[in-house]
Amino acid sequence: MTEMKKTLLALALCASAGASNAAFTTVYSDVTSHWSDNSFVLELNNLPTTGLVNLGFDLNIIGSWDGNNGWGPDRFNVKVNDSLVFSEVFDHFGADTSFHPVAGSVIQQGSGWGTSIYNMSIQPTFQNLLVTGGKLKVEWFANGPIWQGGSDESFAVSNISVAVAPVPEPETYALMGLGLVGLLAARRRKHK
Q1: What average pLDDT does the chain have?
Q2: Residue at 84 is within a domain
């Protein structure tokens, strides 16, 4: 085998090792979930063992969310794999709120007993979430000391998307390193 072929083979091994997981992304938009007791749960299995997830959804805040006034605070929360990653106070009556949407994420701004709609996919909180064990569980729920869920306060989650990008395993880096060693060895022989 000529030196050029050896070098090209080493480069190909190195490139394939580095790209084995890096370019893989899956978007799940047709999901199975359930709703009960003011919560909505999504569970995905058979994901890459370790991966980064970008979670996207539209959040509909419906009815008389009271912010931090005497009838609140009314909180919307998100747990990912049982860890609370988002807990913000929403308001439709001009009271104090803790949620400050990212520019461009407000689809519709409601007031009083109206509906506000937010594109949560661009909120930094829902980007690059680390998932291990090949499973993802997302729970959306609302609460507060005087939460009136079902009567005049509610929420909806729509347009759910989950993009998963696997994190390369140590074996991938070892294979890439082996390719680099082969490349260096071929180059060294050429210069002798």
Answers
A1: 75
A2: yes
Render the burial of 149-169: b for 16+ CB within 10 Å, e for the rest.
beeebbbebeebebbbbbebe
Q: What is the pLDDT of residue 146?
A: 80
Q: How far, in Å, CA of 136 to CA of 26, rounded?
A: 13
CATH number of residue 117's parent domain: 2.60.120
Structural domain count, the chain = 1
CA dist 113 to 66, 151, 152, 174, Å?
10, 11, 8, 58
Q: What is the pLDDT of residues 102-137, one digit of tens each?
A: 999 999 888 778 889 999 999 999 999 888 888 889
Q: Supply the angle between the helices 3-22 and 170-191 in degrees, to the nearest 10.
A: 160
**What is the tens place of the pLDDT at every residue in 12-50?**
444 433 333 333 344 554 444 444 457 888 888 888 788
- For residue 182, being part of any structural domain is answered with no
14: in domain: no
Q: Which residues pair with 27 in a beta bridge?
A: 163
User: Which token pair is 50?
Assistant: 């370790």
The boundaries of the domain holding residue 60 are: 24-168
pTM above 0.85, yes or no: no
Residue 4 belongs to some domain of the structure = no
**Of the candidates 191, 187, 174, 171, which has an alpha carbon nearest to the alpha carbon of residue 10?**
187
